Amino acid sequence: MYLLIFTLKVAAIIALALGGTTFMIWVERKGAARIQNRSGPLYVGPWGLFQPIADGIKLFLKEDIFPTCADKVLFFLAPLICFAPSLMTFAVIPVGPHVQIADINIGIVYILAISSLGIFGIVMGGWSSNNKYSLLGGLRSAAQMISYEITLGLSVVGVVVFAGSLSLNDIVLAQGGSWFLGIPKWFVIPQILGFALFLVSMFAETNRLPFDLPEAEHELVGGYFTEYSSIQWGLFMMGEYVAMISISCVMVTLFLGGWLPLPWIGPLIEGLLPAGFVLYVMPVVWFLSKVAFFMFLFVWVRWTIPRLRYDQLMALGWKVLIPLALLNVIIAGVLKTFQIV
Amino acid sequence: MGLMTNIFQTDILKGLGVTIKYFFSKPVTFRYPEVRYEMGERFRGAHILKRHEDGIERCVGCGLCAEICPAQAIRIETSNGEDRERIVDRYEIDLGLCIYCGFCQEVCPVDAVFLGKDYELADTDPGRTHVGKDEMLAKGEDPRYDHL
Predict the structure, then answer these.
(1) S-S: A210 plus which of A27, A203, A301, A305, CB 3.0-4.6 Å?
(2) What are the residue ranges spanned by the domains of chain A?
(3) Does residue B41 fall inside a structural domain?
(4) Residue B68: its pLDDT value, please?
(5) Which domain holds residue B92?
């Protein structure tokens, strides 16, 4: 019985992640189109909703091309290594009070460790393609992700200090209740600096604009996946979107109270619904709507801000964000020690 | 750029404001094959031939249009009828040659030939770009050309 429920949970969360990915690709294309005054996909399904599925089928049917001089084994493994870790982070994310695959007590450390595995896929892809553009893309992404991982890790420290736990479930529960005037007791309020740092490094971690130098279509012809075709390319692409969803989930869990409702609007809506629904479904709805906001932010920012230059990226990472992240750790410590917040 | 702009990156927020404004504006895309263009009054498309009220063809086969046509796309063959009247046997326009300048319409002394509203004239077979008299006369019956 336990095993069955566990399996169902795993299936549900994977389905949520992959379904979210397909939906996200549609949102991206539609959002890009609307920002540029176009209509975007229209013909496959209602409002073009099935366009990503059609694209997926097309990718499956295309020929797998292995470059002659490529390292075949690494070339084959790279997209898998890129895709799998981003899916693995969903294991510890609490989607609702009872919807979490594993509540391990070092959840955050697990996520940081797993999400940095993704860069191996990118570097391997760049190296094994035996193409100078791919290699440059792979090297860039390695440098970029390592630099921004430090900021990411340090901005999480503030949250951990406040929650007093590394378990994601405990972190969510620590954000219950509200300050004066019904402002939610989410960590985004005392940790506003940490939130901003996490936000910036989140974009860098997922290789999204304005930090998409590893891909850099205009200079590197697609970067690490220049040589990739068919579903292997598709796995890289999907891995990027799954990573976006998982990092948004982490963001919501750490700073925006996870599945907790908004202090007064939440109970107001939940009062109208049956009790069982409120207990089991509403937390997931709150969680997903918060994640949806960040997903839209990804699209919104991508089609607004141009790419940074490589030295600007490094300067921002090492000279601005990391000192600020250290400052944020000190602020968190001071606030916690003197019980100010 | 002021210090505050630098710290809070207000330029980025301004940019985001612009893009979200466009996000909620109506797309300018014209869904062409589903939605058709409304052509202007003086649009010059494929030719039509008109008849008189009583059903007799207006064209008298004078050949002025064929003469003035810069692309030499019009070909007219006439013969003499019983009362030595002129009968137009063939009136053929090669739409592949035609440059849609409208000289034929302008020069026609009896207002027989006009440039119509049809514009999707591409064909995979070059032989099919010729349009004959009957076809153009049939097109001329369209209510869109009643005012001519």
Answers:
(1) A305
(2) 65-337
(3) no
(4) 92
(5) 47-145
Number of domains in chain B: 1
Give the closest residue to A66 by CA, choosing from A79, A54, A53.
Answer: A79
Which pLDDT belongs to residue B107?
93
Q: What ipTM was predicted for this assembly?
A: 0.73
Kindly report the pTM of this predicted structure. Answer: 0.79
Tokens (6 digits) for A210: 């304005």
Is residue B110 included in any domain, yes or no?
yes
CA distance A37 to chain B (A): 4
- 3-state helix, strand, coil split of chain B in percent (to 5) is 30, 20, 50
Do residues A248 and A298 touch, judged by C-beta distance below 8 A? Answer: yes
| Percent over 90 (pLDDT), chain A | 1
Residue B108 forms part of a structural domain: yes
Cα separation of B104 and B50, whole Å? Answer: 13
Contacts of B27 in chain A (CB under 8 A): 33-34, 37-40
CATH number at residue B73: 3.30.70.3270
Contact A38 B22 (CB under 8 A): no
Helix (H) or strand (E) holding B87: strand B86-94
Query: Hey, of B23, B25, B26, B28, which one would you mutate to test binding to chain A, going by the most A CBs within 10 A of its CB?
Result: B23
pLDDT tens across B10-44, in order? 788 888 888 888 888 888 888 888 888 878 888 88
Length of chain A: 341
Question: Sign of the CA dihedral A327, A328, A333, A335?
Answer: positive
pLDDT tens readout for residues A88-145: 888 888 887 777 777 788 888 898 888 888 888 888 888 888 888 888 888 888 888 8
